[in-house]
Design brief:
Blueprint: H1 14-20, E1 59-67, E2 70-72, E3 81-84, E4 87-94, E5 102-109, E6 116-120, H2 131-139, E7 143-147, H3 175-201, E8 207-213, H4 215-226, E9 233-237, H5 243-259, H6 264-282, H7 320-330, E10 333-334, E11 341-343, H8 351-357, H9 365-375, H10 387-402, H11 410-414, E12 418-424, H12 434-446, H13 449-453, E13 456-461, H14 493-503, E14 510-515, E15 524-530, E16 536-539, E17 551-554
Parallel strand pairs: 6-7, 6-8, 8-9, 9-12, 12-13
Antiparallel strand pairs: 1-4, 2-3, 4-5, 5-7, 10-11, 14-15, 16-17
Helix pairs in contact: 3-4, 3-10, 5-7, 5-9, 5-10, 6-8, 9-10
The structure holds calcium ion.
Length: 561
């Protein structure tokens, strides 16, 4: 993701955006009369200091301090978060089981609370409080909270890949910590947040929301499956819902790259060549020649077309084994003994995301961490990896805790919950086809598309890597700590979720924005609707292809694979 786009308030270009999208409504009519009176801003009923003596069920308060309006650098952080309102910062520790110690942090606006709680998620193997995701929610007026998922780790090392190996020793021999990381910390946090909110404001929150990506997406999906009454609305992006399977796929793919010599700078060049060739072959399949592939599941480009011909400059082509490795990585990963599919393959044209995570340099550190935990060996480096044997161990040891695969969302629906899922098409961490597959499973379980669409909608985001970022497509819809170009429900997924939960207005599209130079202050470069699966954004056939109004959400292009 581009950090520049995160530095500015979401309302900077609101007037420009409004002018561009006049007449483009983005929501269905209200389908149910669940609206409550609009919540006025609330002030705290007691002093922040008084929370130091608050008795929580199953947790203890560590500190409670008033943080003045302006800039705040959390203890242990080197990042200053600006433009914050005055808030009460509460640190607590939850202990739901012997051997469990879950770090919790709450930021509660002291003077202008919007009456709502918005919890944020985590990433990778957890162990870190993501203040960077709390800050945008606090600025919006939410009470917000984060958890370290039950263990603490050093912050990511500067210059290391995003999923840098943050180790496995925290989990080996500590089964309760694995449960906390997998699902329990999210529940503990929201439970303690609700207790603290009641004490601080003298009233319950009107609504509770969740907003996360990656492990944070898994946090949301798993919570809907296991604790269906915790949240009114969950925004889940790039979810690590199939963590054991995706980690295995990454490992298999990385070993193929290594064995074919797709490594280092030369490997990066090969992946870039593959991406360029795939996009050239498949760009127009979506009806618009715009440099990106809207749905790569329809792209069948064959890397064999890049194999060097006699006399060809080797810097412009690849070897036959390299082509075979690339082709294998686009295909599903299959257990060589049982023949069963382990996970989906990578998207053609999405190689930028593999490069971003350094798959051409090292075996996935995320994959190694999970296998180290399952095999109880903190030094396991993949050299003895046997797909059939070791994947079975990984599944047996970790799937129940860290995978979020149960398609029975009936209890969540019955509790009134709404789930809005975002999944990027170029995700190299959690290969995207799992998301429509899961959606179809839920749809089959819950009695069809209409019954599912009432409470669960999946929006696929083209030409963006894991959790959005580093792709050529539009990425900003106000998710996680990405900016929205304006705060209306058409452009801001947080507002869209509020309208769905609080007014019964389901989102029928989200307009994603790409900024010029990836900088919101430079203006809008391109806008394109994201559509609820199985619909896709289809060009009307005339008009500027950089403007969302010239696309409709339609099933006209078919479903690919
Ligand atoms: Ca295209």
């Amino acid at each position: 993701m581009n950090l520049q786009t995160r530095k500015f308030e979401i309302t900077v270009l609101a007037s420009i955006a409004a002018a561009l999208v006049t007449g483009c409504g983005g929501s269905d009519s209200p389908s149910s009369a669940t609206a409550k009176p609009a919540a006025a801003p609330y002030a705290a009923a007691v002093g922040c200091d008084s929370l130091k003596s608050l008795k929580l069920t199953g947790a203890t308060i560590v500190s409670a301090d008033t943080i003045p309006a302006g800039s705040f650098t959390p203890p242990g952080s080197t990042t200053a978060f600006d433009n914050l309102p005055e808030f009460c910062r509460v640190v607590a520790t939850a202990t739901p089981a012997t051997g469990s110690s879950i770090g919790i942090e709450l930021w509660l606006p002291s003077k202008s609370w919007n009456g709502r709680y918005q919890q944020v998620g985590t990433h990778g193997t957890g162990g870190v409080l993501y203040w960077s995701e709390m800050a945008p929610q606090l600025r919006r007026g939410f009470a917000t909270g984060a958890t370290d998922t039950g263990h603490t780790l050093p912050a990511p090392v500067s210059g290391q890949p995003l999923l840098a190996n943050r180790g496995s020793v925290w989990a080996i021999g500590f089964p309760e910590r694995v449960k906390d990381y997998g699902y329990r910390a999210v529940h503990e946090l929201v439970d303690k947040a609700k207790q603290t909110i009641l004490a601080y404001y003298g009233r319950k929150q009107d609504y509770a929301y969740f907003n996360g990506c990656s492990k944070g997406g898994q946090d949301g999906v798993k919570n809907a499956q296991v604790y269906p009454a915790d949240f009114n609305g969950i925004i889940a992006g790039g979810a690590a819902a199939q963590a054991t399977r995706a980690a295995t796929a990454q490992l298999v793919q990385d070993i193929r790259l290594r064995d074919a010599g797709i490594q280092g700078a030369a490997g990066t060049a090969i992946l870039q060549l593959a991406q360029k060739s795939a996009i050239e072959a498949c760009d127009a399949l979506d009806g618009v020649k715009d440099g990106y592939i809207a749905n790569p599941s329809r792209c069948k480009w064959d890397p064999a077309t890049l194999v060097c011909k006699p006399g060809q400059d080797p810097s412009t082509c690849i070897t036959a084994p390299q082509a075979a490795a690339l082709a294998a990585n686009y295909a599903p990963i299959v257990d060589p003994v049982t023949g069963q599919q382990v996970f989906h393959g990578l998207s053609r044209g999405g190689e930028h995301d593999q490069i971003r995570f350094g798959h051409q340099n090292n075996l996935s550190s995320y994959s190694l961490s999970l296998y180290q935990i399952a095999l109880e060996d903190p030094n396991w480096d993949g050299s003895t990896f046997d797909l059939h044997r070791d994947f079975a161990v990984l599944q047996a040891k970790l799937a129940d805790s860290i995978d979020a695969v149960d398609p029975n969302l009936s209890p969540f629906k019955t509790a009134g919950g709404k789930l809005l899922q975002l999944q990027t098409w170029d995700d190299s961490a959690f290969m995207p086809l799992w998301a429509p597959e899961y959606y179809d499973q839920v749809t089959a379980r819950l009695g069809g598309a209409e019954a599912t669409g009432e409470f669960y909608r999946l929006f696929m985001m083209p030409a963006q890597g894991h959790c959005a970022g580093n792709g050529v497509g539009p990425s900003n819809v106000g998710q996680e700590n990405f900016l929205a170009v304006s705060s209306d429900a058409d452009h801001d997924v947080v507002t869209a979720m509020q309208d769905w939960v609080e007014k019964g207005i389901a989102p029928r599209r989200l307009v994603a924005t790409r900024f010029k130079g990836a900088d919101i202050s430079s203006g809008i470069d391109l806008q394109r609707p994201l559509c609820p699966y199985p619909l896709e954004a289809v060009y009307k056939g005339s008009g500027d292809t950089t403007q969302a109004e010239n696309f409709t959400c339609s099933a006209a292009l078919g479903t690919g694979n």
